[in-house]
Amino acid sequence: MCRLFGLISAPRATRATFWLLDAPDSLDEQSHQNPDGTGLGYFDSRGQPEVFRQPIAAWQDRQFAAQARHTRSTAFVAHVRHASTGEIAVPNTHPFERSGRLFAHNGVIEGLDVLERHLGAAAMADIGGATDSERLFALVDREIDNAGGDVTRGITTAVRWVAGALPLYSINLLLATATDLWALRYPDTNRLYLLRRPAGGQHGDRALHHADATGATRVHAPDLTVAPAVVVASEPMDEHPGWRTLASGELLHVGAHGEVTSTIVLPDPPAHPLALTDLRPAAAASQHTL
Q: Glutamine amidotransferase type-2 domain spans which residues (predicted)?
């Protein structure tokens, strides 16, 4: 199953190195089972998105490791891919960027011909790859524009249309700007987790440390002494007790100063649900959890 990762510490910039490389279940570690592409999206000092994407496994990619070690940003979106739709190539590698926003998706949507007609020729002209994910992002982006820039309303409109019109297995997604992060889990086929870490951790004055089973500290993240962080991921990445599962249909929004709100925007099951047995072999293999 593709793995999603999002972190936001806005308005402060921080590093995501711990979760990307050093945590017990880091994205680097998860890429051993998801080897078909690696992507890291972040925002520069002007709030402009930057995307690093390679169609190889993160654990094999020295450039990914360097980016993960040194990049500072107010928000990150990262993804390791187990291909379900489209060849193993850069245009099909997440995250995607549109309109100053970063997007990544885990799941399977079918009926892409219907979705493409719904998007129209102009929107399709801007799509560079073959994935259901990039087409979903194009729909979300269009609905945000139709909502006057209201991201929550745009995501809600888009996913409600998908849930009612298309066969789907999962549309778990992350969307980030330089100041905000949104996450959706739907339906309950693939899990998505939230971790809220206050500045300094539970005691208010500590960096993030990780100790292995022998008690030896092997990771130290001093940025998080002064920067609160909210993390969303496809699975808990360390032993922190604060990880919680998003509910099916829950749309989470982390605002510019760390405020977290959530709404059930899809209370009902999909109109055309897909089971693993309904999927093409490659798509079914991509959705198996370990």
A: 2-257
- What is the CATH number assigned to the segment(s) 3-285? 3.60.20.10
State the pLDDT at residue 83.
58
Q: List the domain boundaries for the chain.
A: 3-285
27 touches 5 (CB < 8 A)? yes
Answer for the pair 180, 151: CB distance below 8 angstroms, yes or no. yes
Alpha-carbon distance 141 to 137, whole Å?
6
CA distances in angstroms from 114 to 84, 135, 161, listed in the order given: 18, 11, 11
Of all residues in the chain, the percent with pLDDT exceeding 90 is 51
pTM for this model (two decimals): 0.84
Per residue in 8-57, pLDDT (tens digit) is 999 999 888 777 777 666 666 666 665 667 888 999 999 999 998 776 55
Model confidence at 110: pLDDT above 80: yes
Q: Is pLDDT larger for residue 128 or for residue 172?
A: 172
**How open is the CA angle 285-103-91, to the nearest 5 degrees?**
65
